[in-house]
């Protein structure tokens, strides 16, 4: 893997300033999406709703978590953060209203409430090796493409952005953010992960506690862990012949009714060239090449995540 202190691009591939900063120095991107769960029974309530163990989460601590249907399918996933008087779920902005509404419905008869509190907070994702020297109201740990995240009241937004600018941090564009996300293998809700997926299919094992008690969907999770394995998994895909559009399918040449892979995200990386994310059939090994010279679909090579 290229050193975090040096961006090594493919020959002839331009490297944007924000990409270079995110890889080698310091960069940032403002994020949104916060659901607040409050009330005396907030921890007990979420203990029965989330895949993660909520017990013992001290103020300032956080854990990956997900919410499931009774059939074990994903409703949402994100990071659970504890404050002194409430618990916060950090989710994509597009998902926050739905997550808040779902939790509010089940909290109605308990001493707990849930609401979309996005407007009350600023979330700033950090990139690059120099991010370790920054501090914030709440400093969340590194995950996937992010070197950390700052979580603070909305009123602190201007001061934090000014501090980042003074430290030489470069704002990351949407297009560069997408490249970094795919390189790291981070699934995007609504694109690489939907309500049709099991948590295990998209690599969310870290969000699932094997020790906690009952929660919605636990029976299915336990059954999968004990007796079976998922039929597909989110994996990296390299496209040596050039970019491939999201939605492209790779059927089995011998059994066309069997889909070996489907592309969900596709970018052109300065380091890795044309790459993407997609769901791959369980029996397709890393390194396998999908498609053929006689196929109109460009070849895809299955890769481990993150790309290296």
What does this structure look like?
This protein is of the alpha+beta class and 308 residues long. The chain folds into two domains: 1-9 and 231-308, Elongation Factor Tu (Ef-tu), domain 3 (Beta Barrel); 17-172 and 198-228, Probable tRNA modification gtpase trme, domain 1 (Gyrase A, domain 2, 2-Layer Sandwich), CATH 3.30.1360. 19% of the residues lie in helices and 29% in strands. It is built from six helices and 16 strands. The protein has helices at residues 17-24, 42-47, 96-107, 157-166, 174-184, 218-227; strands at 27-31, 34-38, 62-68, 74-82, 86-90, 113-116, 121-127, 138-140, 148-153, 170-171, 232-238, 249-251, 259-269, 273-281, 289-290, 300-303. The strands form three sheets. It has a six-stranded antiparallel beta sheet. A five-stranded mixed beta sheet has the order 8-9-7-1-10. Strand 8 (138-140) and strand 9 (148-153) form a beta hairpin. The longest helix has 12 residues, at 96-107. It is flat and about 65 Å long. The relative contact order is 0.16. Mean pLDDT is 91; it is low at 1-5.
In short:
By secondary structure, the chain is of the alpha+beta class. It has helices at residues 17-24, 42-47, 96-107, 157-166, 174-184, 218-227, and strands at residues 27-31, 34-38, 62-68, 74-82, 86-90, 113-116, 121-127, 138-140, 148-153, 170-171, 232-238, 249-251, 259-269, 273-281, 289-290, 300-303.
